[in-house]
Amino acid sequence: MYFHCIAALLAICLLLSSGGASAVTEEEVVAGAARLYRIRIDALAQAGMLDRDALFVARVARIAQRLSEQARRDNPAAQVLSWEIHTSSDADDNASCMAGGKILVSQPYVEQLALTDAELAMVLSHEMQHAILLHNLKEYHEAVRLDPGWLARPFSALEEAVDNDGRLMGQLAELNREQEVEADREGMAMAWRAGWRASELAAYFRKLEQAATMSHIGSATHPSPLQRWRAARRQAEALARGRTGE
Ligand SMILES: [Zn+2]
């Protein structure tokens, strides 16, 4: 009986310590992303690769502004994202948006694909959806579900691991692919609501697919460019017929 009581107490303590330590919070994720974004931006500035072309910076800012206004109209109750946008002249970058709305767009990427404004809007809208849909937070929660031991370590260790630990990245690959599909779908829908034509948004994925065919690019975390182009074309046809694209 005594041992049963001890066991029960232990079980309660374990429950409290695992549940009580609570999960990673969005505030933590946003603060970590802001810190990493600042390091990246500072490094680009040091290398003379930040916001080099004022016309391009203004073009990206104008399109992102129209999209962020749409995001606010779509969901006025959503947490306020503090959007921040920079451009890089790093040919190895493409486009990214970190938690909280920290965007970085590579000018060489946009120029290599000769993106129109609508196609650039598709890229930005996809990236913005990652922040709007709290994808990083969901990724961290999945990592903690797989290994609650992460809660006992500093958050920065987990932040580092999701981008560098091959085993964890493999475990998260399926979730990452689902998030990419979701960002494509919601990104196109939001840009369409903001006023761009669906077929012109979908054209981005055709360009991506053509570029991938030439360079044989593959990715573990993204659906194939052909899958993305087919899904975008289907959604664009549905949107053009006046449906939601679901
Ligand atoms: Zn993405």
TrEMBL record:
Chain ranges of the Peptidase M48 domain: 59-234
- Which cofactors does the annotated protein need, by name? Zn(2+)
Q: Which InterPro entries match?
A: Mito/Outer_Membr_Metalloprot, Peptidase_M48
Q: Does the keyword Transmembrane helix apply?
A: no
User: Where does the signal sequence lie?
Assistant: 1-23
Cite a single GO MF annotation: metallopeptidase activity
Instruction: Answer whether the UniProt record assigns the keyword Phosphoprotein to this protein.
Output: no
Keywords linked to the UniProt accession: Hydrolase, Metal-binding, Metalloprotease, Protease, Signal, Zinc
The free-text cofactor remark is:
Binds 1 zinc ion per subunit.
UniProt lists the family membership as follows: Belongs to the peptidase M48 family.
Q: Which PANTHER family does the annotation name?
A: METALLOENDOPEPTIDASE OMA1, METALLOENDOPEPTIDASE OMA1, MITOCHONDRIAL
> What name appears for this protein in its UniProt entry?
M48 family metalloprotease
Which source organism does the UniProt entry give? Massilia violaceinigra
